[in-house]
């Protein structure tokens, strides 16, 4: 399995009310192509911070992050933008859909710069919305969708990019078990077909069975955890 | 201070730039309200001081013929009412540079420096010291009347060469206009020089024909005028009726009259802006209010803490507002007066408008704070904790599928909160409307003025030295060939006291038997029947009369009463037109004092005027073309001045639009952060904001156009009372300019959200605003 993500000696701290909290203290991580990794940990342990750094929207005080062979900490603003556009799919805990765009338009927004051909753009958008079972809700605006449906639009928006890595923060938090199963299977199929690497932050023990690895953020570093057994 | 009040103030400190932005909106609203009143006070006070410093005369008396200075002095010295006086010899002349003839007034005086009456403001060079030298009133340098030049003047057929040693401002000639009948300060059409009295006496004969004087405290101008009547006075003008004073008064009156209206408009704009801003500010803190309620603070405690915040914002806004008021006042008065003269501005202690402005700001801010606090605190603690401003947005299918989704989002964001959009468009549209109203008014007024001038059919108007038998008048008596003229129509013009409805003013009475041939009379009411009296609307409104009323015309003890047959539009002239026979009580109806001349070829009016001036019976000639040219130059000056108002109002548009969009932008920070995580470049986000702003700009500008006509109509009513009547017309130029420049200025405010989105910390926004 070729190496896609390599993190070395990551340090990050936050200052609140004059008190410095060290969140990441020399964190190391290597992830291979098509790996699905679950990151667990108590609240405030730095899980989201780690995802944000991988996505290039936060920077560590020290350390190195290489994604696809590129040291993303050395990229300028424009290149970081391009990196996020081409290689990263974000799935937010609270979906972050654009309220004035329909489900279809939200998905198109994420990929229109990657897929210039309109027919292909439409085809890919409809395919991914279909895969998350929203074929009949494509023209609905976020506020006309349930929380679960909004979450699935957010997932479709991230996956439709067919990115190198997907960074998901509690991606199934608002889904029932049946939908959760379907979404995870969709992710697994992308993992298989496209070799997408997934980093999934969740407290949901049921997801473990889909993971190749489960890590826990403890004391600012990652510790291997036993898997549920569903990974490859 | 109580802890919760301190906490609210800390909140303000934390968001310092927003505090400054909110305060600026308040400041601008306040400044617009206060500036009108204060600028009028500054203009009044500065003018008064200028007239005092430069010893403006209390009385101006002209004699019909030259008088012995000793005789006049004896009368004035004997009067207890006179403080200082100066005897002068005043002659009309012609300054004849190469391309045109310009009317000139030559005033012989004894001493140019440190004068007791009509003191000069030396602007360049020095005063005259010897024979052959003169000082000129500033403003005609472009025509060669400048320091060091020797200027030839023709007076009574004699040429005098005068060396100009200095340029001065004179309080009696703030407006150097040859067209004294015209109620506009048409500066730049007249050369005025002050020269040694003896020089002028040597040319035109000894004696004096003009007295300027100041009165003792409590002195009676009427009594002095009566004393001088024995010398045969041609005109007596009180200081309060002098064109310099009345023009300045008109300026101050105009500001006083206009700005309350503008102030009221801006009060509304300011109130809506402040209300929207403060409402949002309080609503965004609804959860905090819920926390305070859960801690047991009463509604009153909470309201009080927000009132403290409101007062603090009032304080900052008022301080900035006072500063902006002085800035605007300085700009308005300086720009307004710089067209004609230079004066030091006096800023009087005049707190009333400021107190009123601050009072308005306090009411607006406190209402804007208390209403949302009341709405939130009337609910239960649990509801207050959960209270959120409406987060659902209005969705629409605006835009096409082929459009970039980021741009599409921009367009749709315009209508995401339709009510707020409507209010924003209305408020911004109002500011554009106020700005545009200046252009509409300018175009309407000056197009109307041009129409008024063009309504005259004559090319030359010759004033005679004395009365001339009308039947003897022909082209040849005016040095013109019969084939050169279409008509020569005699008239008799006299300045008389005119009264009606208990009011009486000075007006020009024109007696002419073929009046309707000289002008295309545009009647406001009645008909152009000169058997009776036709009044200009300017005069009719002054003395409050209408068609069918009787107007009385007086000179000394003689009085003629005429039935008013019609009122004609004329923006400037306070005239009565009637047949000559109606005025026979004042002069021989066979005689006339001047003539209108229509030339066969109007292009030859300069050459013809030269010939007419040389006719023995003629004292001065007005060339119609020159009036039009001068008026156009006044229009250009005024246009530049009104454009300053236009731009100034549009700056307010930027602030109002900017403050509205920044609110809309701030509540979308998660969306901007999301776009960043999707790898959408800042340039595309900026384009999205521009798309949103362009729709807002177009809608606001579109609303601004009818508003500009509505406000222009309202201002024109005020203007008709203080300057002159003019109808508001649809003007393509003003409409297009208002639309395009208005939209452009709204677009400029998109810099605020673009900068905001560009500076947004994506990670922090996602972490703080979407953390569970």
Task: Describe, in short, the structure shown.
The complex is a heterodimer of chains A (232) and B (772). With 232 residues, chain A is α/β, with parallel strands linked by helices.
Task: Explain how this protein is built.
The complex is a heterodimer of chains A (232) and B (772). Chain A contains 6 helices and 10 strands; from the N terminus they run E-E-E-H-E-E-H-E-H-H-H-E-H-E-E-E. With 232 residues, chain A is of the alpha/beta class. In chain A, the strands form 2 sheets. A 6-stranded mixed sheet of chain A has the order 6-7-8-3-9-10. Chain A has a 4-stranded antiparallel sheet with strand order 2-1-4-5, covered by helices on one side. In chain A, helix 6 links the parallel strand 7 (165-169) and strand 8 (197-201). With 772 residues, chain B is an alpha+beta fold. Chain B is built from 21 helices and 20 strands. In chain B, helix 1 crosses helix 8 (299-338), helix 2 (16-53) crosses helix 8 and helix 16 packs parallel to helix 20 (751-759). The chains are: A alpha/beta (232), B alpha+beta (772). The A-B interface holds A 48, 52, 55, 57-58, 77-78, 81-86, 88, 90, 92-94, 96, 98-102, 105, 108-110, 112-113, 118, 141, 143-144, 157, 170 and B 392-393, 395-396, 402, 404-406, 408-409, 412-413, 416, 670-671, 673-682, 762-763, 766-767, 770-772.
Whole-number mean pLDDT of chain B:
83
What fold name stands as the CATH topology of chain A? Rossmann fold
Structural class label of chain A? alpha/beta
Residue windows where pLDDT falls under 50 for at least 5 positions of chain B? none
Secondary-structure element string of chain A:
EEEHEEHEHHHEHEEE
Level of helix content of chain B? Answer: 40-55%
Approximate strand percentage of chain A = 25-35%
* Widest sheet, order of strands of chain A: 6-7-8-3-9-10
List low-confidence stretches of chain A. Answer: none
How do the strands line up in the largest sheet of chain B? 2-3-8-5-7-6
Q: How does the overall form of chain B come out from the CA principal axes? A: elongated
For the record, give the distance between the C-alpha atoms at the N and C termini of chain B, rounded to a whole number: 35 Å
The number of helical elements of chain A comes to: 6
Percent in strands of chain B: 15-25%
Number of domains of chain A: 1
């Amino acid at each position: 399995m070729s190496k896609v993500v390599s993190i070395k000696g990551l340090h990050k701290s936050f200052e609140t009310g004059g008190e410095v909290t060290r969140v990441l203290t020399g964190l190391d991580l290597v992830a291979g192509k098509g790996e699905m990794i679950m990151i667990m940990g108590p609240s405030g342990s730095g899980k989201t911070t780690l995802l944000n750094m991988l996505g290039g929207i936060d920077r560590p005080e020290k350390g190195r992050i290489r994604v696809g062979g590129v040291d993303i900490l050395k990229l300028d603003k424009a290149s970081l933008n391009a990196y996020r556009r081409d290689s990263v799919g974000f799935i937010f805990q609270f979906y972050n859909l654009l309220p004035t765009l329909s489900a279809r338009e939200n998905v198109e927004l994420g990929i229109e710069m990657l897929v210039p051909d309109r027919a292909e753009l439409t085809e890919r958008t409809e395919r991914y919305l279909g895969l998350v079972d929203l074929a009949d809700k494509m023209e609905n605006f976020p506020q006309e969708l349930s929380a679960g449906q909004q979450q699935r639009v957010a997932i479709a928006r991230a996956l439709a990019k067919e990115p190198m890595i997907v960074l998901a923060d509690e991606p199934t938090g608002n889904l029932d078990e049946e939908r959760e199963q379907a979404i995870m299977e969709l992710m697994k199929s992308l993992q298989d077909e496209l070799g997408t690497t997934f980093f999934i932050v969740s407290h949901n023990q049921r997801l473990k069975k889909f993971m190749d690895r489960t890590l826990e953020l403890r004391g600012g570093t990652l510790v291997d955890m036993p898997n549920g057994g569903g990974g490859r | 201070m109580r802890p919760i009040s301190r906490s609210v103030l800390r909140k303000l400190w934390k968001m310092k730039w927003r505090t400054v932005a909110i305060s600026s909106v308040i400041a601008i609203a306040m400044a617009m309200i206060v500036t009108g009143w204060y600028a009028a006070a500054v203009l009044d006070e500065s003018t008064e001081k200028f007239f005092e410093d430069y010893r403006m005369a209390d009385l101006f008396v002209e004699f019909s013929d030259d008088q012995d200075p000793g005789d006049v002095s004896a009368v004035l010295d004997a009067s207890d009412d006179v403080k200082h006086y100066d005897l002068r010899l005043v002659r009309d002349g012609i300054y004849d540079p190469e391309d045109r003839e310009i009317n000139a007034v030559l005033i012989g005086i004894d001493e140019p420096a440190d004068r007791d009456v009509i003191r000069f403001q030396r602007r360049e060079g020095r005063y005259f010291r010897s024979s052959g030298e003169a000082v000129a009133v500033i403003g005609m340098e472009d025509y060669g009347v400048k320091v060091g030049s020797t200027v030839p003047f023709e007076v009574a057929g004699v040429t005098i060469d005068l060396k100009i040693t200095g340029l001065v401002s004179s309080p009696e000639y703030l407006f150097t206009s040859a067209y004294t009948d015209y109620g506009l300060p048409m500066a730049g059409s007249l050369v005025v020089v002050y020269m040694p009295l003896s020089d002028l006496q040597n040319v035109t004969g000894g004696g004096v024909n003009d007295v300027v004087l100041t009165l003792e405290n409590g002195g009676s101008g009427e009594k002095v005028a009566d004393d001088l009547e024995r010398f045969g006075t041609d005109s007596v003008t009180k200081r309060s009726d002098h064109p310099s004073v009345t023009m300045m008064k008109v300026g101050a009156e105009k500001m006083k009259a206009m700005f309350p209206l503008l102030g009221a408009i801006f009060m509304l704009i300011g109130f809506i802006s402040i209300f929207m801003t403060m409402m949002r500010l309080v609503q965004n803190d609804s959860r905090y209010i819920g926390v305070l309620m859960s801690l047991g603070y009463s509604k009153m405690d909470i309201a009080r803490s927000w009132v403290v915040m409101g007062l603090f914002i009032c304080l900052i806004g008022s301080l900035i507002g006072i500063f902006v008021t002085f800035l605007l006042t300085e700009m308005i008065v300086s720009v307004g007066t710089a067209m004609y003269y230079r004066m030091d501005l006096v800023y009087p202690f005049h707190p009333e408008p400021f107190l009123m402005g601050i009072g308005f700001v306090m009411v607006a801010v406190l209402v804007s704070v208390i209403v949302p606090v009341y709405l939130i605190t009337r609910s239960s603690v649990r509801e207050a904790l959960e209270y959120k401003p409406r987060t659902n947005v209005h969705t629409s299918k605006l835009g096409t599928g082929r459009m970039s989704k980021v741009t599409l989002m921009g367009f749709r964001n315009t209508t995401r909160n339709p009510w707020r959009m409507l209010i924003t468009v209305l408020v911004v549209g109002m500011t554009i409307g106020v700005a545009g109203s200046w252009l509409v008014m300018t175009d309407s007024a000056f197009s109307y003025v041009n129409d008024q001038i063009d309504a005259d059919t004559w090319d030359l108007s010759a004033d005679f030295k004395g009365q001339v038998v009308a039947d003897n008048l022909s082209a040849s008596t005016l040095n013109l060939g019969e084939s050169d003229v279409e008509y020569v129509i005699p008239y008799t013009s006299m300045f008389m006291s005119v009264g009606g409805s208990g009011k009486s003013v000075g007006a020009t009475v024109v007696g002419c038997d073929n009046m309707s041939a000289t002008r295309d009379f545009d009647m406001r009411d009645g008909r152009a029947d000169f058997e009776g009296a036709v009044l200009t609307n300017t005069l009719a409104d002054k003395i409050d009369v209408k068609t069918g009323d009787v107007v009385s015309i007086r000179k000394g003890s003689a009085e003629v009463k005429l039935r008013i047959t019609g009122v004609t539009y004329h923006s400037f002239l306070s005239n009565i037109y009637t047949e000559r026979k109606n005025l026979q009580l004042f002069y021989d109806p066979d005689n006339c004092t001047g003539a209108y001349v229509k030339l066969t070829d109007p292009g030859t009016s300069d050459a013809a005027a030269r010939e007419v001036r040389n006719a023995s019976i003629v004292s001065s000639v007005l060339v119609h073309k020159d009036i039009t040219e001068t008026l156009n130059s006044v229009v250009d000056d005024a246009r530049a001045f009104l454009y300053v108002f236009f731009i100034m109002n549009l700056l307010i548009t930027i602030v109002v639009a900017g403050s509205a969009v920044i609110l809309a932008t701030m509540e979308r920070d998660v969306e901007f952060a999301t776009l960043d995580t999707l790898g959408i470049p800042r340039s595309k986000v900026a384009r999205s904001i521009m798309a949103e702003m362009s729709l807002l700009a177009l809608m606001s500008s579109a609303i601004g156009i009818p508003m500009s006509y509505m406000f222009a109509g309202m201002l024109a009513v005020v203007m008709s009372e203080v300057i002159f009547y003019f109808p508001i017309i649809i003007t393509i130029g003003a409409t297009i300019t208002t639309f395009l420049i208005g939209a452009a200025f709204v677009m400029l405010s998109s810099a605020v959200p673009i900068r905001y989105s560009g500076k947004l910390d994506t990670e922090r926004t996602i972490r703080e605003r979407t953390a569970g």
